[in-house]
């Protein structure tokens, strides 16, 4: 779990076991809600195996906002960091093996890791990449047709199409499952 950090901060060699002990292993079946929209997030997750989705309720309809896979960390960032109600729900799509850390423990680890410039740069790069991903997804709703959004998904993130049920992909693309079926049929002709 700490492989990448071990490479950039070898000076913390003696701390890895202590950090690892702050994480708790959790196995959950598919369709398990880890955080409800409106609750305050007190846990951050690391995905060892499986897939999670972040979604929100829009007038009674769930809208998938993002997918998270193996070797990724996930939380409702604004809720976790600021102690405010979460704008999203976190739910497993597949059976998952997760490792979670409580906010107070996470803050202690981050206080120590933030003293190392290489770690700070790595964390900033990770946050920037996630922000760029969100902006790109948002811009595609303004710029691209549903077919173009689907073709971009196939090209840029084919693992999503292979692993995620069609109705979640349709929600992520901002279209109905029927529309997605039509697009897929037109492409496969």
From TrEMBL:
Pfam families named among the record's database cross-references: cNMP_binding
Listed name of the protein: CRP-like cAMP-binding protein
Coiled-coil segments on the chain, per record: none
The species this protein was found in: Mucilaginibacter lappiensis
Sequence ranges assigned to domain Cyclic nucleotide-binding in this UniProt record: 23-110
Family annotation (SUPFAM superfamilies): cAMP-binding domain-like
Alphabetized InterPro entries for the sequence: cNMP-bd_dom, cNMP-bd_dom_sf, RmlC-like_jellyroll
């Amino acid at each position: 779990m700490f492989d990448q950090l071990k490479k950039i901060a070898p000076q913390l060699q003696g701390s890895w076991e202590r950090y690892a002990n702050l994480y708790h292993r959790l196995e959950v079946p598919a369709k398990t809600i880890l955080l409800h929209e409106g609750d305050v997030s007190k846990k951050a997750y690391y995905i060892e195996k499986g897939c999670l989705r972040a979604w929100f309720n829009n007038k009674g309809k769930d809208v998938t906002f993002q997918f998270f896979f193996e070797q990724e960390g996930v939380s409702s960032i604004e809720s976790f960091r600021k102690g405010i109600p979460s704008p999203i729900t976190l739910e497993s799509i597949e059976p998952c093996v997760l490792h979670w850390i409580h906010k107070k423990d996470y803050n202690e680890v981050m206080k120590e890791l933030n003293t190392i410039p290489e770690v700070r740069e790595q964390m900033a790069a990770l946050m920037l990449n996630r922000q760029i991903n969100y902006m790109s997804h948002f811009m595609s709703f303004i710029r691209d047709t549903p077919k173009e959004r689907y073709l971009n998904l196939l090209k840029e993130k084919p693992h999503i199409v292979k692993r995620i049920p069609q109705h979640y992909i349709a929600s992520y693309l901002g279209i109905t499952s029927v529309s997605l079926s039509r697009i897929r049929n037109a492409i496969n002709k």
